[in-house]
Design brief:
The chain has 217 residues and is mainly alpha-helical. It is built from 13 helices and no strands.
């Protein structure tokens, strides 16, 4: 069993299944992935709820609405003017490609390259969309993942995104459900124990964590 799988088993036993991503449609996942950049998920939920209230959670509506109006709708997610431009760029690309039905027939790597070419879509956002909207076995690397596994001494904090993603994927079966659950568990653990200032007491990974062992000495 790989060390990545061992960590997963410890987290799953401690926290139980997390049931991510909270969305009703693949397109809602995509919108959430863009809005959650530098934002707390609770604020993203408020922005998405506002879009629903306005009847605007639709790619054609979002692509065509006046940008300042869209910015007001998504204001709770922060950086609303920037995110309005990014969301419109994404929606116009999405419509031009034939939406989810057409894009779902693409192979994963060409789809990832195409997503990364869209204005405002970086690796983490692209991989959120691939994993949660298209159910592809692509592991999402975020700040929580980097923090946890560097503290465990398994990766270097200096590794770039692609190297860290490859390391994860090489040690796990290519299973979207597994990647989904694992990412959610990492986020949960980072919010409960592996914070910027860690709470090592009662951490389920403390026995194998160098920082956790130091906290007991």
């Amino acid at each position: 069993m790989s060390v990545r799988r061992e960590v997963f088993q410890h987290l799953l036993a401690h926290y139980g299944p997390q049931g991510w991503w909270p969305a009703q449609t693949p397109f809602e996942v995509m919108v959430g992935a863009i809005l959650t950049q530098n934002a707390a998920w609770t604020n993203v939920e408020r922005a998405i709820e506002r879009l629903k209230e306005e009847g605007a959670l639709d790619p054609q509506v979002l692509a065509g609405v006046e940008p300042t109006r869209l910015g007001e709708w998504i204001r709770p997610a922060g950086y609303f003017n920037v995110k309005a431009r990014r969301l419109q760029a994404f929606c116009r690309w999405y419509l031009a490609q034939g939406e989810w039905e057409a894009l779902s027939r693409w192979e994963t790597e060409p789809l990832r390259r195409a997503l990364l070419a869209v204005h405002g879509v970086g690796p983490e956002t692209a991989d959120d969309i691939l994993l949660y909207a298209f159910e592809r076995p692509v592991f999402v690397i975020d700040a929580y993942t980097r923090r946890l596994f560097s503290r465990l001494g398994l990766v270097s904090a200096e590794w770039d995104y692609e190297r860290l993603r490859a390391w994860f994927e090489d040690g796990l079966e290519p299973d979207p459900a597994l990647f989904n659950e694992y990412h959610a568990l990492i986020v949960r653990h980072a919010k409960v124990h592996c914070r910027v200032r860690p709470r090592c007491t009662a951490c389920p990974l403390q026995p194998r964590c160098p920082q956790g062992r130091l906290s007991r000495s």
